Amino acid sequence: MSKLPEVRYWSKEFETIDRPSLKKLQVKRLKETVSCALKTSFYKARLKKAGINGPEDIKTLDDLEKIPFTTKDDLRECYPGGLLSVSLEEVVRIHTSSGTTGTPTVIYHTGADVDRWTDLVARSITATGAGRKDIFQNMMSYGMFTGGLGLHYGAERVGMTVIPIGGGNTRRQIQLMHDFKTTVLHITPSYMLHIHSKTGECGFSVNDLNLRKAYLGAEPYSENTRRKVESLFNIDVYNSYGLSEMNGPGVAFECVYKCGMHTWEDAYILEITDPKTRESLGPEKEGEIVFTTLTRKATPLLRYRTRDLAFVHGGECRCKRTHRRLSRITGRTDDMLIVNGVNVYPSQIEEVIMRVPQVGNNYQICLEKEGTLDKLIVKVEIYSKMFRGDLGEIEILKEKIKTELRAAIVINAVIELHEPGVLPVFEGKAKRVIDTRQKL
Amino acid sequence: MKLTQLSVFLENKQGRLYEVCALLGKNKINIRALTVAESEEFGILRIVVDKPESAMRVLKKNGFTANLTDIVAVEVGDHPGGLAGILKILFAGNINVEYMYGFVEKFSDNALLVFRFEDINKAIKVLGKNKIRIVGKKEVDNL
Q1: What is this model's ipTM?
Q2: Does A386 touch chain B (CB under 8 A)?
Q3: pTM value?
C-alpha cells in the first residue's frame, strides 16, 4: 500500500539499543524483578528452593535457567494475593481472568506499572506509523479484558483522538467510522471481516471511509487473512500480541515493515522453549513462548509459560529496531479455544454444565462459522429423571444454562438439548470439542 | 378422577414420532388422545393411553425420556360456546390452564377434552361444584 514506509520511534534510545547493552539492561532489570518476586509469598518459597536468595544470585542472563517456570496453575493457586509484591495501597488496577476451572487469576498494577505499560503501547502504535493526527476507534472490549484499556491509554498517550466504543454494535461502529473519519482500528480479524460484510447494509461503501490502518489481535489468523483485510479495506494491517499475564497488548507489535512482531525486550525476557524437553530454542524453531516481566513491580512473573506456540524470526529488521521479532501464534500447548477473540477452556463450559442438575454428564462443544464470526454451540442431554413433561420448564432450563455460561465465559452460546444417549459416548479420552471453523 | 398422561421428550428428528407410535403399537397400547408441543429443536409428545404404566416402562426401556403427569378429562358440550362455558367457570374459580387438547373419540354426544391445570385438586373442586362432568379412567377405557 504505502511506498517507502517512514520509520518513526517513540523511544528511539530503547528501541534501537544494541544487543549487548540490551542484555545488560535485561540483567539489571531481572535482578530488580527477582527482588520484587522475593517479596511475594509464592516466589519467596519457590526461589529459595531453587537456590536464589537475592538479586546477587543473578549475574548473567544464563542464570535465568536456574529459575523454575511459572504456570497458569501457579497463578490460580496464588489467587488472590500470593503474587502481590507491594502493599495494596500502591496498587491502582486489578485485571482478573476467569481461569480454566472457574478459579480466576489476577494481575495487579501499580501506577508506575500502568504508566510503563502505556508507554509500551504508545511505542507499538508509533512503530506502525500512526500518530496524533489519527482518529483511533477501539473496537476491543473494555473492562477486565485488557485489550480495550491497554490500547486506549497508549493511544491517548500518543495523542490520537480515541473513540472508546468497545466491541459489538456493528451499525454504530460503521456510522462512527464514517462520521469521525476514523483512520485506525483495533479489532479482532473475524470482526473486521464481519464489519466489511455489513458496511453495504448500513448504506456505506468502503470508499466512504477514511481508514488507513488496523491493529488485528486477540485471535490467531494467517498471512492470507491479513492480505484479504488489507485489500478489502485498502489499508495496512498490523499484527498485535499480548496476554493479560504480561499486562495485555503492547508485548509484541509489528512495525511498518510488517514482518513479525517486535517483542519489547527491555520490558520482557522472551524465551522459546521446547514444550516437552523445556530446552531453549533458537531462531526459526517453533516452541512455547515463555516470558519474564522486567518492569512490573506489583506482580512480577518469572519464566511464565504462555502455552502459545510461535518462533522468533532470524535476521534484522529494516526499521533498525533491535528487538527480536515474534512470528504469528501457530497454536497452543493446551486445549484453549478462542471464540471471537475471547479465550475459553472446555473445562469452564463443563464446570457450568455440571452445575445444572437437569442435564446429564455427556456434552459436546461445537464451534462453527456464522458468516465470519464464531458460533459456540453447547449440546447437552436432558437427564431423564428430571424431565417433567413441561415445555416451558425446558425453555427456562436452556435460558439458565445460557445465562450461567455467559457469566462464566462472557460468550453467548447456543444451547441445544438432546435426548439421552444421542451424543457420542467415549471410552478413554473424550473428544468433546468439534471445531469446524476454517482458520482465518 | 385424575387421568395419567405420558409426556415424551423428542428431538426434532425425522422419524422420531413414528418410532414412539410404532413401539406403542407393537406393545398393544392404544392412544386415546394426543398433542405435540414443539419448539425449534425438540418437541414434547403428550398422550393419553389405555395402559400408561406399561407404556412408560416400554418407552424407558427403549431409551425415551418420558414422564407421567396427572390430567383431567372433562366432558364438554359439542356446540358453539361449549368450551367457553367451561373456561368461564375455570376463570371465575381462578384456575389456570397450562394446556389442553381433545380426545379422538366423542363421549356420548359430547366432546372430551384433556386439561392440565396448575392446581389440579382445586380445579376438580371447582368443576365439581359447577356440575361439570369429569370423566374417569374406566369410562375412558370403555370408549
Answers
A1: 0.77
A2: no
A3: 0.80
